[in-house]
Amino acid sequence: MTRRAYAFHEVLVAPARPRPELWRLLAGLTGIMAVSFGLNALLYALLVSVFSPTWAATLPQGMTPGQMTVLLGGFAFVTLGVALVARWLHDRPALGILGPLPLALRQFWAVFRMLLLLCAALLFLPPYDMGLPLRPNLSPGHWIGLLPLSLALVLIQTSAEEILFRGYIQQSLAARFSSPLVWMLLPSALFALGHFAPAQAGDNAPLIMLWAGVFGLMMADLTARSGTLGPAIAVHFVNNIIALVIVGAPEGLNGLSLYILPYEMSDTGLMREWLVVDFATMAVTWLAARLALRR
Asked: How many CB atoms lie within 10 A of CB 182?
């Protein structure tokens, strides 16, 4: 049953099969990190020379639109790293990681439309708030003026993460191992670890990491079912629009958001209650994306 459901995954995996050695994957991840961290470090050094030391020191917090532009735009270096590694170590074109581009775009749009309808429907369902009134952040006029840039930046960031985790890592593992337990679980575990932030989330950090791991598994499933990264990018895009552009976290990464959550991520009361809702919403979103792919 799983093999039939994931038959289209072979479209993505086949180009990686001629060079399935694990050393290539490990060397590739090292190369991707070197490109990403190296170019971001150069960019940071340039910004330090241009802006005030205070602005540069608080850059990782992403509390202003300019800081968020740098942080989210920097994910383009991850995509560049994957493209270089795919060509040099695996002799495959970078666009091949996305799958057939026309199909990827059609699937992205189909899932994106479905999720917009789902979000509109959820506005009329309880809970009608997030426990407390949301705190205003950017003024509506400023937010609307930044919206095209904000959407473009979130698309860069979410595409980069999907290209790395559900693209390069998942496809490389699937070229070497036939079991989905390997090529779905390992990238999802790495994705979850990347979201482990005890300094910001406190005792909620393991729950948020679990949320990210389950999200990664769902995106791996969508990718294997569709044969492109289009659906996973669409789901991730919508999720991060809500988390970064609509309602940001008070701890940071809120420089582009219209509102800010009324409680900290470490809040073991209201935040945990909302995480339960978020888990349920994630499951519904995954099912809606699968429905969109069947139409």
From this structure: 14
